[in-house]
Specification:
A ten-stranded mixed β-sheet has the order 2-1-3-4-12-11-10-6-8-7, with helices on both faces. Strands 5-9 form a two-stranded antiparallel sheet. Helix 2 packs across helix 7. The longest helix has 20 residues, at 2-21. The protein has seven helices and twelve strands. By secondary structure, the protein is an alpha/beta fold.
Length: 262
């Protein structure tokens, strides 16, 4: 009897140690990128705070199957080729969480087959466009929480700034909202939605042009939408390494992985 008890305790101890040493199956994410300093900071956070096994690849080195990943981050600055784009599109539609960062929406990505259709995005670069797409470097971009009750925007996130913001979804009233300020970064103006109300908007941005004094407030800095059986997310910050050195921004991205879908 006593011997059985000893054996049982040893087995339980071994099982406990195994659980501590070996991460739970399936807790892994993939980062697909062509620019790595920013992604090294994000990967470190996802490992340390989320316990994820983080794999990193260039777009031409994708694994044969993406089905085993809890999330896939897309951070391709240059040309995004059709074949890897299609693999990420299928991953999302088959139940995955595809998290697109910063220049995952750019004029260059408009050339990628099926990519903007998945995202529900259009960019107008014509010279006479009423809402012409543009990007501006070396600016302050204030990332405004438009959905403070949502898990992704709030779980384990601390906002150290508030801002007076008026939604670009007019008519609307100016209100005080929590925000994160990104310095010496980049802002994208005039992302146009093409999918009606499919998106859940999480963040807007405020940017003031230093030359003209014009203030832009657009509900386009962070959102997610269903994609088949999965979801696709987009967040505009990410130009500079310092963007990811904001601990709370990395936590928001981690929340996309841990959010329980309705």
């Amino acid at each position: 009897m006593e011997g059985d008890l000893v054996v049982r305790n040893v087995v339980l101890l071994l099982l406990f140690q195994l659980c501590v040493v070996v991460p739970a199956m399936g807790e892994k994410v993939l980062i697909v990128a062509d620019e790595w300093p920013q992604m090294e900071v994000l990967a470190k956070y996802l490992r340390a705070e989320g316990g994820y096994d983080v794999e990193k690849v260039e777009q031409d080195k994708l694994p044969e199957s993406l089905s085993g990943y809890d999330g896939v981050f897309q951070f391709v600055h240059g040309t995004f080729n059709d074949a890897p784009a299609q693999a990420l599109i299928e991953y999302a539609k088959n139940g995955g969480r595809l998290i697109v960062l910063h220049h995952g929406i750019s004029s260059k990505k408009a050339e990628t087959k099926g990519w903007f259709a998945l995202l529900g995005i259009a960019l107008d670069r014509s010279t006479d466009a009423e809402h012409r797409y543009a990007w501006i470097d070396d600016v302050t971009n204030t990332f405004v929480n438009l959905n403070p009750a949502h898990y992704i925007t709030s779980h384990n996130v601390t906002y150290r700034k508030t801002i007076e913001y008026q939604s670009s979804d007019q008519p609307s009233k100016r209100v005080t909202l929590p925000a994160i300020e990104f310095l010496d970064t980049e802002v994208f103006l005039n992302h146009q939605f093409t999918d009606g109300r499919e998106k859940t908007v999480l963040f807007g941005f405020q940017y003031q042009d230093p030359k003209t004094g014009k203030v832009y407030m657009q509900d386009r800095a962070g959102w997610f939408k269903p994609a088949g059986r999965g979801h696709v997310f987009y967040f505009q910050p990410g130009h500079a390494v310092s963007d990811f050195e904001h601990r709370d921004y990395c936590q928001i991205l981690l929340n996309c992985l841990t959010w329980q879908t309705p």
